[in-house]
Write a structure and sequence with these properties.
Elements lengths: L2 H11 L9 H25 L1 E5 L13 E6 L33 E6 L2 E12 L4 E5 L2 E4 L2 E2 L1 E12 L2 E11 L5 E6 L12 E2 L4 E5 L18 E2 L3 E11 L12 H4 L17 H6 L6
């Protein structure tokens, strides 16, 4: 058998190649892929992790302006506010499943006076707690919360420099985190006693003198359980804001590389004994 005959038989047995897509078929394939990608992104955003960015300094030094973070949506279960436009077959005030947040968590929540706005603060008071600030010092259930001074910090923001004292604060339960205080004589440094209602939480910013939080009752106040969006998990990007979107050549020097993938979740005591002990209530 000659080579020509072999090639002819091989050609006849081979499967015909797929014809090239027409422009209409290419557009249809692109649209289908885009729709699948959008659906997957919405599912992840709704049920797993939702991205948020930090536009203000109310959570300094924990979170900086220009930080981008992921929030864990299943951390406290799902409410109607877990879904876009609050469209969900979940009754008002309910979460499915019911999961309680813990003191010290950094939480994104819907502003009670305007659910269209997202806030991020630290959970300070649980249902039934009594919260008060006296001369700049935080009291939880009439016990003084321990803080340890770390030194003065010069903070630059919006073209101005402010000197603040940095402290390590130890909450009941043992969570230790950093806070900033300009002084102990600012506007929200003396408050009445707040008794947290059942089904609600008391939130405060770590930048204590530059945070509108649950101490401002006519704006934030007590945060209902259903308004919790999720627990801040970790940073996935951070920029110092020195480069705008069009200044591509500045991007490498604008990124805060040391903050990427930094955890936002609080470190808790390893043992129940340490958790119960915390820090002394007197100084």
């Amino acid at each position: 058998m000659t080579d020509d005959v072999k090639l002819t038989k091989k050609a006849k047995s081979a499967k015909p190649a797929n014809p090239p897509l027409t422009p209409r078929e290419e557009w249809s394939e692109f649209a289908r892929t885009a729709v699948i990608a959008i659906i997957l992104a919405l599912l992840v955003r709704t049920f797993l992790y939702e991205p948020f960015n930090i536009p203000s300094g109310s959570m300094k030094p924990t979170l900086e302006i220009g930080d981008y973070l992921f929030v864990s949506k299943p951390a406290y279960g799902f409410s109607r506010y877990s879904f876009p436009f609050a469209l969900a077959p979940i009754e008002k005030g309910q979460r499915v499943p019911h999961k309680e947040p813990q003191r010290g968590d950094v939480i994104v929540f819907k502003l009670p006076t305007n659910p269209g706005i997202d806030y991020i603060k630290r959970l300070i008071g649980l249902p039934g707690d009594t919260i008060q600030v006296i001369d700049g010092r935080l009291y939880i259930n009439h016990r003084l919360v321990h803080r340890e001074p770390l030194g003065l910090k010069k903070i630059e923001e919006n073209g101005s420099t402010t000197t603040m004292m940095e402290y390590l604060e130890t909450l009941p339960g043992g969570v230790i985190h950093r806070i900033y205080e300009e002084s102990d004589e600012e506007m929200l440094d003396n408050t009445p006693e707040f008794v947290v209602p059942q089904g609600h939480y008391f939130m405060m910013g770590d930048n204590r003198d530059n945070s509108q939080d649950s101490r401002v009752q006519d704006l934030v106040g007590f945060v209902p359980y259903e308004n919790l969006v999720g627990r801040a998990s970790f940073l996935f990007f951070s920029t110092n804001g020195y480069a705008n979107l069009m200044e591509v050549w500045k991007w490498p020097w604008s990124i805060r590389y040391n903050r990427i993938f930094q955890s936002v979740e609080p470190v808790r005591p390893a043992t129940p004994e340490a958790e119960a002990a915390g820090k002394p209530a007197h100084e």
